[in-house]
């Protein structure tokens, strides 16, 4: 019988509908409900993108394709089953771990749908998954900590960048600024030597080199509303600076995200785009990878490499 390996596919989560927004953000805020004003603003943002985020549907499609991809090579002597775990909504990470332990798998590999490692993002998912597994006396668990330089991942982003560039006139392209962006985190990660900022720059540099494009910079987005400082500059500030410098064309490639969700569909497609328009700039965003087969290939390659390091395949 083939070795049974669970793949724990992890994502941030999202409310399934407007009625779940308050509970979702209360969970993010560690049990502290958002104020009425903040809740109303959050609901307005979800309404602006159609009522809910498509993240759950996209994640299920990614899981289906990933399981299919991993099991396409029958010579490995293993069978993979993908389990979805969400950080802030059902099915929670611990729920997914309970499910694969109850299913009697031989080993498990965790991977987050975020290419770049941070102790405050991927590191938290990894800790929660391993704690849940060890609580069930399940020790055969490995983790993919980053996959930000997987070639098929870069291939897919490069294609999307070239597609976005084609939406500008020749005159605009002559003065086109390329921005790479990702979710901001508290600045204190810099004091901890966190790998997140540098890994994001590694992805950005690799893509800029593929394009032969030197006029680019990095910006942060979607910072949390806490009193402590977050990584900067924010993308809206960057847009102002570019406008003041005479730029009239901007492409944003949100390399820190792989799927459409609120931080892309609202923060970029609505908020950043509107801000750029008020400064008379043509703003475009690269399309999200979602269930692109090259994203699936990048995930599968990373998972197989983790299995090989444990001699599971």
Describe the secondary structure blueprint for this structure:
Layout: E1 3-11, H1 21-28, H2 36-48, H3 55-70, E2 78-86, H4 93-102, E3 107-112, H5 122-135, E4 141-144, H6 151-165, H7 170-173, E5 176-183, H8 188-191, H9 196-211, E6 216-221, H10 235-244, E7 249-253, H11 262-265, H12 267-278, E8 282-285, H13 293-309
Parallel strand pairs: 1-2, 1-3, 3-4, 5-6, 5-7, 7-8
Folded structure, characterized:
By secondary structure, the chain is an alpha/beta fold. It has two domains: 3-147 and 292-309, 3-Layer(aba) Sandwich (Rossmann fold); 151-285, Rossmann fold, CATH 3.40.50.1400. It is 46% helix and 16% strand. The chain has 13 helices and eight strands. The strands form two sheets. A four-stranded parallel sheet has the order 2-1-3-4, with helices on both faces. A four-stranded parallel sheet has the order 6-5-7-8, with helices on both faces. Helix 6 packs antiparallel against helix 13 (293-309).
Write a brief structural summary.
The chain is α/β, with parallel strands linked by helices.
Question: Which features does this protein show?
Answer:
Rossmann fold; 8 strands; 4-stranded parallel β-sheet; 313 residues; 2 domains; globular
CATH topology call of the largest domain: Rossmann fold
Give the strand order of the largest sheet, numbering strands 1, 2, ... along the chain.
2-1-3-4
Number of helices, where a helix is a run of at least 4 consecutive DSSP H or I residues: 13
Low-confidence stretches: none
Mean pLDDT: 97
Q: Can you tell me the number of structural domains?
A: 2
Main beta sheet strand tally, sense and closure: 4 strands, parallel
> Termini, distance in Å?
14 Å
Instruction: Report the structural category.
Output: alpha/beta
Helix content: 40-55%
Order of helices and strands: EHHHEHEHEHHEHHEHEHHEH
> What is the strand content?
15-25%
Mass-distribution shape: globular
